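Inputs:
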Amino acid sequence: MPLRIGVPQFPGSCDEVDALLAAGHVGDAELLWHRDRDLKGVDAIVVPGGFSYGDYLRAGAIAGLSPVMDAIAAFAKDGGPVLGICNGFQVLCAAGLLPGALLQNADRRFVLRQVELSVETTDTDWTSAAEPGQLLSIPAKHQSGRWWAPSELHAEIADQEQIVFRYAAGGNFNGSLDDVAGVCNEGRNVVGLMPHPEHAVDPLTGSTDGLVLFRSLLQGATNV
Amino acid sequence: MSEHPTLPAPRDLPAGAVPEGDAPGLENAKALGLTASEYDLVVQKLGREPVQVELAMFSLMWSEHCSYKHSKKLLGTLPTEGPAIVLGPGENAGAVDVGDGWTVAFKVESHNHPSAVEPFQGAATGVGGILRDIFALGARPIAVLDALRFGEVDTDEVDASGAPVGEPGDTAGTRRSKFLLDGAVRGIGHYGNSIGVPNIGGDVYFEGPYETNCLVNAMALGLVREERLIRSAATGVGNVVVLFGAATGADGIGGASVLASAELGEDDASKRPTVQVGDPFEESKLVECSLELLELDLLVSLQDLGAAGLTSAASEMASKGEVGLDLDVALVPRRMEGLQPFEVMVSESQERMLCVVTPDKVDEVIAITDKWDVHGTAIAVVTDTGSFRIFDGDALVGDMPIPALVDDCPLYDIYPEKPTESIYPAPPRRIADGLDAGAALLALLGSSNVADRRPLFEQYDSIVQSRTVRRPGQTDAAVLMVPGPASRFSVGGGDAAGAGHPAVAPEAGAAPTGAAGEPATGADGGTGDARDAAAAGKPISGVGVAIDGSGRRVAADPYVGTIWNVLECAANLACVGAEPLGLTNNLNFGNPEKPHIAWQLTEAVRGLGDACRAVGSPVVGGNVSLYNEGTTGPIYPTPVVGMVGKVPDVSVTAPVGFAADGDLVAIAGSFSPQLALSEIAKLEGGAIPDGLPAWDLERTAAAIAAVRDTVREGALSSCHDIAEGGLVTALAESVLAGGVGATIELSPFAQDDADGRASLFGEAPGGFVVSGPAEALATLAERTAVTVIGTVGGGTLGVRCGEQALELPLADLDAAHAALGRLFA
Amino acid sequence: MPHVRILIRPKAGILDPQGTAVEQALPQLGFEGVSNVRIGRLVELDAADATEVAAICDQLLANPLIEDYEIQVDGAALAS
């Protein structure tokens, strides 16, 4: 049985097709509707980028309350692998599944830039196929990607090695605390990051460095 | 499902029934922009004076914006037919065949006056409007490009010796231009980024005449199976018209006629309340809903609401179907209380669509609109009366023959007359006379028309939808995979792309570890998408897209300058191996009732037609924006052209940047540069010349085709069109994009160019800087003129030509080139 | 029905780029001596039960991690 990966679509999602396409490199990809609680028995979830519900109020805030996110929270609690990309990261933070918050970029502008990410830990469901310290060339594109957490929380997740990705030296364009580009939960099955690994899966469109996140799923699957 | 009990039905009216209310009369008609003779014609068509709703609707439909009354005759001279044309002018957008049953729909449109008043919302709603034109055809929007024109943002002025003139720093004019630029860029980014359509390119120029009348032209592309293209004609008496999307408010009431036909004066702030506000979130739901309705085959026709709102959308649907409509404004969902019937009819509230549905499908259509939270409401019914009858509940408030509204606006001749002297002042001088070549190059690279565009395009998402093979700045034209693998997952592709959202099978050999045993399968096959093509070893096809339109050269010579713009667009396409399929244009001009503007417009359209025929790119549609005049006079005449070309193999395109040490550098093509009108002449305060030398159009077009053919063979390491700033600027751009230097030596080749300056800094169409191994250049030389001028390598750009010599490290070039960053700090 | 105004602002110490931008622009316009500019948002609503508003803020309108809020019912501040 191939791996089955679900991608929830909210009104205002933009990168769901890109996520489906990337997931299709390692398994069968399936769209999930925001009003449904049914995750169709998928093995993993990718919460895609975009501007769910227009990002009105705060990025990710309203999507975090949708029925599909209820189901995803339960799935995550049971140890199911969940990846949040960009707006998906914001949604997972807003829903309390990941630590910290994503604030407006320090220069207030939307920026698209190819960035280098360093893999800070391979002990997660989404980085197990990577090498520790591996540099990934992946595009980032967002207006509210400045990760922030109060100092106690920051110290705690740093201590627990929950910082999964950092912007490589000089690449922190949005002003994130401690150069953090991605974090995971305590269970290490839920990972979120601002840059877009699903946009780095094809040499024609720039880079294949993002595939390693999706391949990590396969590694997890074979270990089970 | 049985007929809905409450659907709008054709009304029975007693013979001779006339609409309620008084006639506002001639003076009000004039205030709304109608002339006395136009008003008389309306009276004649109706057999009585128009009542309020009718007058409001006629004033919009007979405005320049809707009727093209000063340009329609000219536009009829443009070539509109070609082998790739699927849909020519007349529908919401044109469309070309890109192979395997797929078509690309595209169109450019202006939102100049709204942007000059409120740049953020004006530009944002400009993007929203052009996207609606695309998905109104049933096409999924796959890209946006934009052409922007603002006043000067460079500041300090000098005299011929280089001594400062006047106060240094910003003036009221440069401050306004920066404000407009910042607002327009944020607005375009806000709308396009939020809706998930990549912004893949564009151009921007800064010239004095745009200071109080900036130009914001947006172009969009959409992808659709040919059999899925839907027209806008309302047909089938008894069919129901459903409005869906945003509720109607007071946005832009009178906007189309008042804003688009009056020259902007100092008091433009007072026009602020009529500006429309865009909501990209609403539009993204509208896209998905519209495409799902089409996927389920629920619609007879579809139309977007743009300028002139319901009035224009509904009457044009009825006109194309040769039917009548009974519309009840009381059924139109409102965002605010107290709107009059005429206000509902002319409101320009954004993010609304209109569709015609057979009665048995209305419930299903409304259920789909509810799924996407863009709730549909049946507001009108198709009739056999040939009249557009407007009701407010039971009251008849308007009754107009559809042809009178749509077709009977008088068309006007314009009276061209070439001015005896240039109507544009010389630009302010920025550099001293006779700067050495190195200093002149650095000044050019740092000038706003030449500096790196990255600070702008970084604010746009150029990669969403996973079709973008070449991002802005990498190549002279953007390259998209079409249909691209993403089409498999997108509603709107039709059956061949797989209805709904089918899963794909794991790709062959995707994972070196852990994925063993996953067989490679071709999924559902036959879609012509990248995965299948790659699996079959076939090249992945796509399109190249560019948009161009310098106004300064058109100001110098409307005929030759317009040809130049088209050639530049074709040259940009050639760099990615794209052969033109079709072209869309936006003619931005001043007041055509003035003889010199009429002359510019007439000559430009003549040039556009000749150039389109020469490069084999018919016109699929476009837009005309007239009366672009600010407080200091007319804008530069600015015909913006957007061209789409076929790329047989998207993996074979030539980048701007030099790639390999030891590659030879050459000038290729048919290139006869001159200094008059060049960017260096502008920096030296040079007046706009009266006329440009003509060149052999056929030969230049052939040179462009030769470069394209050679790029397609994959032998060239780089290819870059020589444009603003001339040869030396193109060399610097290739050096910077590639991150590697070059050593160049050549003899002056421009006419009357003893010192080499015109060869290095002069401008003309048809020239390319190419690099590659000797064999590649030899192949190109069999097809067009090639002069080898140097080699790639090192960390500096060194150039010698006649008396000109420069040697500059990459870091210095880069620092100068990054000048635009300060505008967005 | 009580009319409720909710003032939401970034917590002290969190970089507020909008506030910083405004603060930097003011001297250019000749307004000297302005500091600590913070930009938040105002939510107005009519609530049948004003005592629920704090919960609404915690769960949706504000992110307690990064934002403070202040509730005013019919013009009077409500201790939160």
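Chains B and C do not touch (no CB pair under 8 Å). Flag for discussion at group meeting.
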